[in-house]
Amino acid sequence: MSMIRLTHISKTYAGTHKAVDDLNWEIGEGTITGFIGPNGAGKTTTLKMITGILEPDEGGLIEINGVDIQKDPVIAKRQFGFVSDSPDHFLRLKGIEYLNFMADLYDVPTKERKERILSFASRFEMEDALKDRILSYSHGMRQKIMVMGALLHDPSVWILDEPLTGLDPKSAFELKEMMKEHTAAGKSVLFSTHVLEVAEKLCDQIAVINKGKIVYRGTLDDLRKQFQEGESLEEIFLSMTKDA
Length: 244
Description:
4-stranded antiparallel β-sheet, 25% strand, Rossmann fold
Protein backbone atom coordinates (compact mmCIF):
# COMPACT_ATOMS: atom_id res chain seq x y z
CA MET A 1 0.00 0.00 0.00
CA SER A 2 1.25 3.49 -0.86
CA MET A 3 1.22 5.92 2.04
CA ILE A 4 2.38 8.84 -0.14
CA ARG A 5 1.60 9.09 -3.85
CA LEU A 6 2.64 11.91 -6.19
CA THR A 7 1.25 11.98 -9.73
CA HIS A 8 2.61 14.49 -12.27
CA ILE A 9 3.73 16.99 -9.64
CA SER A 10 5.48 20.15 -10.84
CA LYS A 11 6.22 23.54 -9.31
CA THR A 12 7.22 26.59 -11.32
CA TYR A 13 8.50 29.80 -9.75
CA ALA A 14 8.39 33.24 -11.37
CA GLY A 15 6.67 31.74 -14.39
CA THR A 16 9.83 30.16 -15.78
CA HIS A 17 11.94 28.32 -13.20
CA LYS A 18 10.76 24.72 -12.79
CA ALA A 19 11.86 23.80 -9.26
CA VAL A 20 10.09 20.43 -9.46
CA ASP A 21 9.47 18.81 -12.83
CA ASP A 22 6.74 16.17 -13.33
CA LEU A 23 7.40 13.92 -10.33
CA ASN A 24 5.70 10.53 -10.14
CA TRP A 25 6.57 8.82 -6.87
CA GLU A 26 5.06 6.28 -4.48
CA ILE A 27 6.28 5.65 -0.94
CA GLY A 28 5.07 2.42 0.61
CA GLU A 29 4.30 1.38 4.15
CA GLY A 30 7.01 0.03 6.43
CA THR A 31 9.82 1.96 4.73
CA ILE A 32 12.33 4.64 5.68
CA THR A 33 12.91 6.65 2.51
CA GLY A 34 15.84 9.05 2.25
CA PHE A 35 15.42 12.05 -0.05
CA ILE A 36 18.80 13.20 -1.31
CA GLY A 37 19.95 15.97 -3.62
CA PRO A 38 22.20 19.02 -3.89
CA ASN A 39 21.08 22.44 -2.65
CA GLY A 40 18.37 23.85 -4.90
CA ALA A 41 17.51 20.45 -6.39
CA GLY A 42 13.87 20.64 -5.27
CA LYS A 43 13.84 18.64 -2.02
CA THR A 44 12.24 21.22 0.27
CA THR A 45 9.81 22.38 -2.45
CA THR A 46 8.68 18.77 -2.91
CA LEU A 47 8.20 18.23 0.83
CA LYS A 48 6.26 21.49 1.13
CA MET A 49 3.92 20.37 -1.65
CA ILE A 50 3.41 16.95 -0.06
CA THR A 51 2.48 18.66 3.22
CA GLY A 52 0.20 21.25 1.62
CA ILE A 53 2.34 24.30 2.40
CA LEU A 54 2.81 24.92 -1.32
CA GLU A 55 0.38 24.11 -4.10
CA PRO A 56 1.69 22.20 -7.12
CA ASP A 57 1.12 23.46 -10.65
CA GLU A 58 -2.29 22.61 -12.08
CA GLY A 59 -2.91 18.96 -12.88
CA GLY A 60 -0.79 17.34 -10.18
CA LEU A 61 -2.19 14.94 -7.57
CA ILE A 62 -0.84 14.36 -4.05
CA GLU A 63 -2.35 11.68 -1.82
CA ILE A 64 -1.51 10.82 1.80
CA ASN A 65 -2.97 7.45 2.83
CA GLY A 66 -5.28 7.76 -0.16
CA VAL A 67 -6.53 11.25 0.80
CA ASP A 68 -6.15 14.03 -1.79
CA ILE A 69 -4.44 16.89 0.05
CA GLN A 70 -5.89 19.50 -2.28
CA LYS A 71 -9.51 18.27 -2.00
CA ASP A 72 -9.48 17.24 1.69
CA PRO A 73 -6.57 19.18 3.26
CA VAL A 74 -7.64 18.86 6.91
CA ILE A 75 -8.14 15.08 6.72
CA ALA A 76 -4.90 14.67 4.74
CA LYS A 77 -2.88 16.74 7.21
CA ARG A 78 -4.00 14.56 10.09
CA GLN A 79 -2.24 11.63 8.40
CA PHE A 80 1.29 12.96 8.85
CA GLY A 81 3.69 14.75 11.16
CA PHE A 82 5.96 17.32 9.50
CA VAL A 83 9.24 18.77 10.77
CA SER A 84 10.43 21.68 8.60
CA ASP A 85 14.03 22.63 7.87
CA SER A 86 13.83 25.52 10.37
CA PRO A 87 13.07 24.97 14.07
CA ASP A 88 12.70 28.68 14.87
CA HIS A 89 8.94 28.76 15.49
CA PHE A 90 6.68 29.64 18.45
CA LEU A 91 9.68 31.09 20.25
CA ARG A 92 7.67 32.95 22.91
CA LEU A 93 5.92 29.78 24.09
CA LYS A 94 7.34 27.52 26.75
CA GLY A 95 8.17 24.03 25.53
CA ILE A 96 5.24 22.45 27.36
CA GLU A 97 2.87 25.16 26.08
CA TYR A 98 3.91 24.40 22.50
CA LEU A 99 3.42 20.66 22.99
CA ASN A 100 -0.03 21.15 24.52
CA PHE A 101 -0.94 23.52 21.67
CA MET A 102 0.01 20.83 19.14
CA ALA A 103 -1.88 18.17 21.11
CA ASP A 104 -4.97 20.41 21.19
CA LEU A 105 -4.67 21.01 17.45
CA TYR A 106 -4.84 17.26 16.78
CA ASP A 107 -7.33 16.41 19.55
CA VAL A 108 -4.88 14.19 21.44
CA PRO A 109 -6.61 13.01 24.65
CA THR A 110 -5.08 14.08 27.99
CA LYS A 111 -3.84 10.63 29.01
CA GLU A 112 -2.14 9.93 25.67
CA ARG A 113 -0.54 13.36 25.43
CA LYS A 114 0.96 13.10 28.92
CA GLU A 115 2.37 9.66 28.18
CA ARG A 116 3.84 10.73 24.84
CA ILE A 117 5.30 13.98 26.18
CA LEU A 118 6.96 12.09 29.03
CA SER A 119 8.31 9.46 26.65
CA PHE A 120 9.68 11.96 24.11
CA ALA A 121 11.11 14.24 26.81
CA SER A 122 12.91 11.28 28.37
CA ARG A 123 14.33 10.02 25.09
CA PHE A 124 15.50 13.49 24.06
CA GLU A 125 16.62 14.54 27.58
CA MET A 126 14.24 17.52 27.53
CA GLU A 127 12.43 17.02 30.86
CA ASP A 128 14.01 20.05 32.55
CA ALA A 129 13.65 22.30 29.49
CA LEU A 130 9.88 22.02 28.97
CA LYS A 131 9.13 24.83 31.45
CA ASP A 132 11.49 27.25 29.62
CA ARG A 133 10.65 29.41 26.62
CA ILE A 134 11.67 28.03 23.24
CA LEU A 135 13.45 31.36 22.66
CA SER A 136 16.02 30.31 25.28
CA TYR A 137 16.70 26.93 23.62
CA SER A 138 19.77 26.05 21.60
CA HIS A 139 19.28 25.14 17.94
CA GLY A 140 19.37 21.44 18.79
CA MET A 141 16.81 21.81 21.57
CA ARG A 142 14.50 23.72 19.24
CA GLN A 143 14.85 20.91 16.72
CA LYS A 144 13.91 18.36 19.37
CA ILE A 145 10.81 20.24 20.56
CA MET A 146 9.61 20.59 16.94
CA VAL A 147 10.06 16.84 16.40
CA MET A 148 8.14 16.13 19.61
CA GLY A 149 5.29 18.41 18.56
CA ALA A 150 5.05 16.89 15.09
CA LEU A 151 4.82 13.33 16.41
CA LEU A 152 2.49 13.88 19.39
CA HIS A 153 -0.65 12.82 17.50
CA ASP A 154 1.04 9.53 16.51
CA PRO A 155 0.73 10.04 12.73
CA SER A 156 1.27 7.07 10.44
CA VAL A 157 3.43 9.11 8.04
CA TRP A 158 6.48 11.10 9.18
CA ILE A 159 7.85 13.78 6.83
CA LEU A 160 11.09 15.26 8.11
CA ASP A 161 13.19 17.93 6.37
CA GLU A 162 16.84 17.60 7.52
CA PRO A 163 15.68 16.38 10.97
CA LEU A 164 19.14 15.48 12.32
CA THR A 165 20.67 18.93 11.77
CA GLY A 166 21.90 20.35 15.07
CA LEU A 167 21.06 17.30 17.16
CA ASP A 168 23.63 15.99 19.61
CA PRO A 169 24.79 12.39 18.97
CA LYS A 170 22.49 10.83 21.60
CA SER A 171 19.40 12.65 20.33
CA ALA A 172 20.26 11.84 16.72
CA PHE A 173 20.59 8.18 17.71
CA GLU A 174 17.22 8.27 19.49
CA LEU A 175 15.47 9.84 16.50
CA LYS A 176 16.94 7.23 14.16
CA GLU A 177 15.79 4.48 16.53
CA MET A 178 12.31 6.04 16.59
CA MET A 179 12.24 5.99 12.79
CA LYS A 180 13.10 2.28 12.80
CA GLU A 181 10.43 1.53 15.43
CA HIS A 182 7.85 3.50 13.45
CA THR A 183 8.44 1.62 10.20
CA ALA A 184 8.70 -1.74 12.00
CA ALA A 185 5.05 -1.11 12.91
CA GLY A 186 4.17 -0.88 9.20
CA LYS A 187 4.20 2.93 8.94
CA SER A 188 6.44 5.18 6.85
CA VAL A 189 9.15 7.82 7.18
CA LEU A 190 10.26 10.21 4.45
CA PHE A 191 13.20 12.42 5.33
CA SER A 192 15.62 14.61 3.44
CA THR A 193 19.30 14.58 4.31
CA HIS A 194 22.69 15.76 3.08
CA VAL A 195 24.49 13.14 5.17
CA LEU A 196 25.03 10.21 2.87
CA GLU A 197 26.31 7.94 5.65
CA VAL A 198 22.98 8.34 7.46
CA ALA A 199 21.08 7.38 4.33
CA GLU A 200 23.35 4.38 3.85
CA LYS A 201 22.83 3.03 7.37
CA LEU A 202 19.20 3.96 7.92
CA CYS A 203 17.19 3.90 4.69
CA ASP A 204 15.28 1.06 3.08
CA GLN A 205 14.86 3.17 -0.06
CA ILE A 206 16.40 6.37 -1.38
CA ALA A 207 15.31 8.90 -3.97
CA VAL A 208 17.88 11.20 -5.58
CA ILE A 209 16.58 14.47 -7.02
CA ASN A 210 18.55 16.73 -9.36
CA LYS A 211 17.26 19.87 -11.11
CA GLY A 212 13.70 19.07 -10.08
CA LYS A 213 13.68 15.52 -11.44
CA ILE A 214 14.09 12.27 -9.52
CA VAL A 215 17.06 10.59 -11.18
CA TYR A 216 17.05 7.45 -9.04
CA ARG A 217 14.61 5.54 -6.81
CA GLY A 218 15.43 2.27 -5.12
CA THR A 219 17.89 0.71 -2.69
CA LEU A 220 21.46 1.82 -2.22
CA ASP A 221 22.63 -1.69 -3.05
CA ASP A 222 20.94 -1.53 -6.44
CA LEU A 223 22.36 1.95 -7.03
CA ARG A 224 25.91 0.73 -6.33
CA LYS A 225 25.49 -2.00 -8.96
CA GLN A 226 25.08 0.72 -11.62
CA PHE A 227 28.55 2.11 -10.89
CA GLN A 228 32.08 0.74 -10.81
CA GLU A 229 32.91 -1.50 -7.88
CA GLY A 230 34.82 0.37 -5.20
CA GLU A 231 33.33 3.80 -5.90
CA SER A 232 32.33 5.56 -2.70
CA LEU A 233 28.80 6.78 -2.06
CA GLU A 234 30.07 10.36 -2.37
CA GLU A 235 31.59 9.62 -5.79
CA ILE A 236 28.33 8.03 -6.96
CA PHE A 237 26.28 10.98 -5.72
CA LEU A 238 28.62 13.54 -7.35
CA SER A 239 28.48 11.62 -10.62
CA MET A 240 24.67 11.62 -10.60
CA THR A 241 24.41 15.34 -9.79
CA LYS A 242 27.52 16.68 -11.56
CA ASP A 243 25.49 19.11 -13.70
CA ALA A 244 23.65 20.58 -10.70
